[in-house]
Structure formats: structure tokens, C-alpha cells
Design goal:
- This protein has helices at about 1-15, 25-30.
- Helix content is about 35%, strand content about 0%.
- The chain starts with a helix and ends in a 23-residue tail after the last helix.
- The radius of gyration is 26 Å and the shape is rod-shaped.
- It is mainly alpha-helical.
């Protein structure tokens, strides 16, 4: 009986791990997108001229 009670309690506590709001997949994918920065598009800007 003790094992059954532990299994039931594990199921009950597991239900608290689920979120009440449903996030769309597109919203969660935007969290992991890499934003392009300077030079990532293959067009590397030339270095600044040396100061004399």
C-alpha cells in the first residue's frame, strides 16, 4: 500500500510541473535564434586606417 501511495503522490506532484499557459512553438523558437552581427553575412568591413 505504501508503494501505491508513493506512486500516486509522484503523479500528483508531477502535475504541478506543467504550465498553465500554452506557448506557441514560434514564440519559443525565437528564444534560440542567433542574431546576425557585423561580419556574419560574409561582408566583412575593412579595418580602420592606421593613425600616424
Amino acid at each position: 500500500m505504501k508503494k501505491i501511495m508513493i506512486a500516486v503522490m509522484a503523479l500528483v506532484f508531477n502535475t504541478f510541473l506543467f504550465s498553465c499557459t500554452s506557448d506557441s512553438i514560434a514564440d519559443t523558437d525565437t528564444l534560440y535564434e542567433t542574431q546576425a552581427t557585423e561580419g556574419d553575412d560574409g561582408d566583412v568591413p575593412p579595418p580602420p586606417p592606421p593613425e600616424n
